[in-house]
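fold-stage: in
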Amino acid sequence: MRNKPSSELVEKIRDRLMDSLSAEIVGYLESKVGIDILDFYYDWNLTTKTGMFVAVSKAFDPAVSVHSFDNQTAFHKEIERISLAAEKVPGFVNSYLVNPRTLVVIRDNILVNIEKEIIAHGGHEMLRIAKRSLEKRFFGTNQPQLKKLLNTKVLDILIDWNFGRDSSSALFILEPIA
């Protein structure tokens, strides 16, 4: 069983560290890759030893799906349904199958007014921890439906938000899709 107080402390320390390092990581990526980065997301799961860094280019067109997959539209509807249970239906959802094991989901306009108010009052740290826990639990409970839509098992889900832009990135680690 997860030790809630110590895991929350680890998450707080991680988030503070990443808040201070994100600008440096983005600057490094921009100089090495030669693109301007709009959003940078991170998350990791210490138990499963999985993690993500997702950088979204300013040139990124969220309406363009680079690698579509079977049931993508139905998968987006399921993401909307799960999001509604946690907060509200996103204003926009798209997904990108990066490779047979990696599916990235981008959601925009997901925050409800109380969350925006909490952020305005400096509560983004606790909100991030609470949302991460809540959404991972909701996605976990919906594993059978996700497996059916993706034709494979979801091994892990990593989630982060850009509260200032009201956007989110979720990375699904999958058993390889055939």
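fold-stage: in (second)
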Amino acid sequence: MRTQSTATTQYQSIRTVLDLFRQRYPQCELRMREVLPVDPFGPLRAGSIDIGILWLPVREPDLVVGPVLHREDLVLAVAAGHPLAGRHEVELEDLGDHPVVHPEGPIPDYVWEAHTPSTTPAGRPIRRGLGIGTLEEAFRAIADGGVVSPIGSDAASTRQRGDIVFLPITDGPVLHYAPVWRSGGETPLIRAFVQAAAEARTRPPSSPGSHAGASRTGGASDIGA
């Protein structure tokens, strides 16, 4: 089974789900792939993955959303020389004073709004600056100092670098991730994965281990994250 996620560091956060599914279906090889945040639904609709672990909301008539698997705080990424860099924390209202990156891709506006709001709590517009297609492009643009951006704390924790500072957002949104699949492409393996996800939410995380791959044939599946 092929699964995919918008953040590679989510692997550890959904590890209990993967382990439980593998225990029940050892003949099924899981293959983790990365989803570009600017095109969260494209791989699902193209059939290149079976399940996507995507941030919510997802309001697409051709897609089904499962139980929440993971929650992630957002931090603000700014250049080391940026005026905000000396702060210990920021508020969403601060985004009204600085342009933010915006995605160049087919991501719906309502999905991006959950990540980077278009207005501050006081109603001021948050200006869109440089367009980006990948997380690495976002980091390069942020390091240049022309834009700032909310970034998932998981991604920030694995990308500590001298030219970017990550600041807690005291009133920032929290991203909720859930399995998503095509309504017309549900299979017994997909139902089994979603069942494992529902049960794993009440179980403690397991110890770290290695990744595994999978294909859709011969009892295999791809997961996108």
